[in-house]
Records
---
Amino acid sequence: MIIAIDGPAAAGKGTLARRIAAALGLPYLDTGLLYRAVGRLVLEAGGDPADPVAATAAARTLRAEDFARGDLRDAAASKAASQVASIPEVRAALLAFQRRFGNENGAVLDGRDIGTIIFPAADIKLFVTASLAARAGRRHAELRAKGDEMTLEAVREDLAARDEADARRAAAPLVAAADAILFDTTEMDADAAFSRALALIKARAGSRALHGEHL
Ligand code: CDP
């Protein structure tokens, strides 16, 4: 079973996806980490993440340990991720890895284009949103808990800028798949979002099974 969870920055996709994966016994892939790792590699090499040659070279040589590192969540990595993510060759280089990961044993994947490009035939697609204010508040608290002193205003600006760039880019723009379930978590905490999403997934999986489809 493939479950695609897409949506704008800091909508709570990661927390939700991880919990759904654990509940259903499926592997989980945070695809944002791939773009963050590519951006970080380019920065470390002294390059410009907006440079297609440098970014594509980094994407083609990405190894598992590059996206398992702990320093991929800061503001510099976020910005660089959004920049490399607009380059079609970077996206092409990361596509095969994502499909292989999902096809091995099924998976829950979160990102921006899982339901539209990576797994257009995913069994379940959720498009997770929340107001900009709610997303900024959550990300700010998350960063502060890690000792990152970014201000709420700076967090809000970063999210708005990345959403805008992600939605406007020509390559795999941020958009809900036509058959995605829209899931607005503005008024939900993490526990409520998880139990509602799990119920939706079970209902959808159950109705598909009733119609003879194999999950
Ligand atoms: O956690 P947050 O929502 O802030 O970001 P993320 O999911 O880690 O993604 C970081 C950046 O990578 C995004 O702003 C996108 O530009 C890009 N991305 C993408 O283009 N496609 C994906 N499947 C995942 C991330």
---
Amino acid sequence: MAPEKDPDELKKGFCWKLCQSRLCLVLVFLGMAAGIAVSVPMVLLSKSLRERFAPDMKWWQKTIVYQIYPRSFQDSDDDGVGDLRGITSRLDHFQYLNVKTIWLSPFYPSPMRDFGYDVSNYVDVDPKFGNLSDFDDMLKTAHGKDLRVVIDFVAGHTSSDHPWFQLSQNRTSPYEDYYIWANGTTLPNRTIVEPSNWMSVFGNSSWQWSDERRQYYYHAFLAKQPTLNYRNPTVVEEMKNVIRFWMDRGVDGIRVDAIPYIMVSEDYYQDQARNYTATAVWTKPAYYITNLTKNVPDIGDIVKGWREVLDSYEDSDDDDDKSRFMIVELYDTPEVRNRYFEYGADMPFNFDLVTALDNHYQVHGNFCAAICIRDAINNVYDNLPKGKWANFVLSNHDNRRAASRMGELYVDAVNMVLLTLRGTPTTYYGEEIGMEDIFVSYQDTQDPFGKKYGPEKSRDPERSPMQWDDNKNAGFTNSSHPWLAVHPNYTHVNVEWEKNSTNTTTLKVYRDLAILREEPSLQYGLLKFTDVNPDILSYLRSAEEHPHFLVVINFGQVPVTHDFPGALVNRGQGRVKVVTSQAANEGRFAKDSSVPLTQIKLQPGDGLVLELAESGK
Ligand code: GLC
Ligand code: MG
């Protein structure tokens, strides 16, 4: 028989084991802690590990946003005006393009004095465009194709036909203070004049007399676009309800129209000081220092309120990114734009590629080429607040088309820039096929702005119907009276032709770029300008452990042969991933061929996106 163990011995043995195992636990724990302590900073410091994984990006950072001007995109009922069913019938275009988000300019009931930017009912669809069930169909079909839909939110002003304005004008409660009303100034001779010298963006006084109410009301744009009074909490709530109405239907985001103008100073009687800019016209706001009528700080709280509404729709438990997007429209410096990031906008529109290009032309008489474009881009990145995401735009319904501004030769090149920068690009409909502005005589001018200031101020030229094919009216409508003329070049500038041609076309280049954009280096990788001279614009996009890309474009007027010194790019060869159409069609470069980086010959307008071979190869 085995001797029985002394219970104390047993205890001792047990304790010892326990002790041993505790010690072991402690040791394991300490080991782990030390491991974590050592590895965390290592992970944080290891650039390659950090960059290997895609950062946590929202859907609106990964997509191209495509702006549809509903009047001009596709007509489905042959009345010469585009509509929602028309848009629904064309959604496959975006799958072809690899575009994942569309933004629709206004389709709400409107007397169309500013073509929909004068809303008479925020929660319905204008009969010209269809009805709410057409909208729901469009949204459902779009979502079924993995397309996000952003709508225009004309926040600052309604149409004077809006019932709110009618009721405000006749002082019906609770609408009396829905708009900005003021008595005006009584002169010694008893005539009543405007309260102050505030000017409308569309010209002349922004104060309009109402005979009915016997007061002036304020309008930042047309007199028929009275500005809402956001100092009235009921108005604030009404407009939040408008957002809720569309979010409840499943809309993915809003583009807020003309944000700087939604509020004005409380002191309606204070004149604005002159700013003495040489070119300013006294009937336009630029003649004055507009701090009383533009970007007043109180707008911050309003935007914050909208952010809260949008965030209340975000479902964070879900893997699918349900965040609702807000982009606000303003033409201003980075410093002013950045305030809107702070207020809660995901992005303030950055129009620097539009304005820098135009201003450069006005000052220098030639268009903004490589150095000027680089400076404009650097200015955006240099002023971007930490953690915020950039965006770029080339044109829209208020600005000339890229082809008309830069010249046909450079169309692919500017699309190449737009789609290879770090930041969300917005493409105006038709830019993917290189559409050009139409000519509209003064007689035929539709835009109120053009009617008032002459055809050169008109925005009709860039709003002409989308060119789908070479049928009558480019496949936009069967009516013989499209609301604006189709550009005569539609026989060869159209989607169908550009898709099916055996040639390389602007559309195919756009699509190649849109697909390549999903590469990590192009989506979130760093951007570094390499060689830039008066002709050549070039930059490197790189995310570690992923293929890097070099973009090279000749924005000059003469052919150039460029040598990339090894030190900058550090690779011998590049593989052509995208090539602009003329360079491809004239046989200068072929997709997937290899190009020695020491000898890149580019004609004006030629551009390449090159995938770089591994270092040393
Ligand atoms: C925005 C729109 C423009 C419109 C104006 C007034 O700037 O983009 O088209 O005329 O607001 O609503
Ligand atoms: Mg129609």
